[in-house]
Amino acid sequence: MKIAIINGPNLNMLGIREPDIYGSNSYDDLCSNICSYARKKEIEIIFFQSNGEKEIIDFIQDIYSSVDGIIINPAAFTHYSYALHDAIKSVPTPFIEVHISNIHAREGFRNTSVTASACIGSISGFGEDSYIVALDAIYRHISNNI
Ligand code: DQA
Fold this sequence. Notes:
Helix content is about 35%, strand content about 20%. The protein has five helices and five strands. Helix 4 links the parallel strand 3 (about 70-75) and strand 4. Helix 3 (about 55-65) packs parallel to helix 4. It is globular.
């Protein structure tokens, strides 16, 4: 099984950025922890991080047919990018949305996701483990739908 994990703007700053909210691990730490877990489940992961909406949309359009599923943390795009919502809906590949923090327990502008409704489901608030929970969920979803 091959899964792409997309991270949006400022997630390359993990470890430096508001560690009280996002933890002290760097983006590279996050990727290597996900990789160790994925290896045990024999899942191949392709990582992509960009600060740009266009770059993320282009990546989705380039990769969707060569992966079984996509996990996406759209970061701030979650709250206003209809273009990203449409990009997710444009392809048949299953998506799961993840957030490190609990977006429902933070500032009002973070309580709304315009992208989650384009995904199978969303996971928020488990720190780095949100990605692990999402990996299990997408693995089960894909296995059950073969
Ligand atoms: C985030 C939450 C968003 O509100 C924020 O803009 C991010 C990170 C999270 O993973 O908790 O950049 O998506």
